[in-house]
């Protein structure tokens, strides 16, 4: 309970700081997609703690951890670098707890792994008609990683975003193996993670 309370406080801080950063040079926030909202809703609607913790802390936050490290590396100014570094430190704790909790639970109840694997398939099916990651997000990541508007820089930025998606997959597979999945299972489950990254 205490750990979850700390996690909720961390997330509230992230919402505040990222909202302030997003509004620093514009008057209103960008839009989230229907697909992104549907993806988050599947987490809120999940009644089983182990499954919710798996989908959120291992698959979702595990993926975001890679994203935050990427943002820290390519952020154009020191404040954004500090924000993303601090948020990544928080997220690393959330992922570590989720992985440790599920690894221990799976040791005493091996059937849990099947249940978790099933939850990934179920969520993938529920979201298969949604559009995935908003192109504006990919464009923004590309520009950020490029650091400039010229053709060569944008091509480099695009390569870095492709590498980011690959690194996210590697990160998820690593965490899945830590929980107790075999490497081939981990690869298959990671491939079914939501296209909007959450
Ligand atoms: Fe988190």
Task: Provide a descriptive summary of the structure in words.
The protein is mainly α and 198 residues long. Helix 3 runs parallel beside helix 6, helix 4 packs parallel to helix 7 and helix 6 crosses helix 7. The longest helix has 31 residues. The chain is globular, with a radius of gyration of 17 Å. The mean pLDDT is 92. The site of fe (ii) ion has 5 residues, from helix 1 and helix 4.
List keywords for this structure.
mainly alpha; 198 residues; binds fe (ii) ion
DSSP summary, beta strand count: 0
Question: How many helix segments?
Answer: 8
Question: Per DSSP, what share of the residues sits in E-state strands of 2 or more residues?
Answer: under 5%
Q: What is the terminal separation in angstroms? A: 23 Å
| Alpha carbon gyration radius | 17 Å
User: Biggest sheet, open or closed, and with what strands and sense?
Assistant: none
Helix content: over 70%
User: What is the 3D form?
Assistant: globular
Q: What bound compounds does this protein have? A: fe (ii) ion
In short:
By secondary structure, this protein is mainly alpha-helical. It is built from 8 helices and no strands.
Q: Topology of this protein?
A:
Elements: H1 2-22, H2 34-45, H3 49-74, H4 78-108, H5 111-126, H6 135-146, H7 151-179, H8 183-191
């Amino acid at each position: 309970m205490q750990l979850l309370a700390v996690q909720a406080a961390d997330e509230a801080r992230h919402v505040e700081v990222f909202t302030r950063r997003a509004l620093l040079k514009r008057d209103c926030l960008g839009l989230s997609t229907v697909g992104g909202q549907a993806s988050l809703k599947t987490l809120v609607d999940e009644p089983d703690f182990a499954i919710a913790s798996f989908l959120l802390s291992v698959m979702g936050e595990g993926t975001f951890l890679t994203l935050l490290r990427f943002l820290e590396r390519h952020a154009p100014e020191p404040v954004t670098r500090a924000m993303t570094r601090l948020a990544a430190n928080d997220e690393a704790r959330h992922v570590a707890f989720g992985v440790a909790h599920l690894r221990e639970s799976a040791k005493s109840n091996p059937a849990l792994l099947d249940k978790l694997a099933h939850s990934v398939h179920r969520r993938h099916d529920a979201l298969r008609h949604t559009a995935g990651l908003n192109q504006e997000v990919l464009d923004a990541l590309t520009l950020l990683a490029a650091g400039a508007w010229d053709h060569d820089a944008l091509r480099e930025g695009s390569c870095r975003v492709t590498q980011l998606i690959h690194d996210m997959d590697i990160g998820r597979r690593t965490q899945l193996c830590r929980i107790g999945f075999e490497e081939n299972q981990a690869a298959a489950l990671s491939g079914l993670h939501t296209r909007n990254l959450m």
